[in-house]
Amino acid sequence: MVVLSFIVFAGALATSMAVILLAVGPQWRRIVQLAMGRVETPALPFAPLRELAVAERRIAVRRWASQSAPAPAWVRAAA
Length: 79
Fold this sequence. Notes:
mainly alpha
């Protein structure tokens, strides 16, 4: 029973270590550089958020422009 338990837990350990190595392996240079304090700078600024803000502003202006203007108070009073 002890041998079977050892085989099961050794297999689980080997599987988990393999998964961790496969996940971390391709990025190990970046991880080491970041751990040493070298911060990487992005090649391009993150533009999608800026484009989203411009698009939302454009949509808001279109909605505002499509609304009809309220009637002046003196027109409502005369009616």
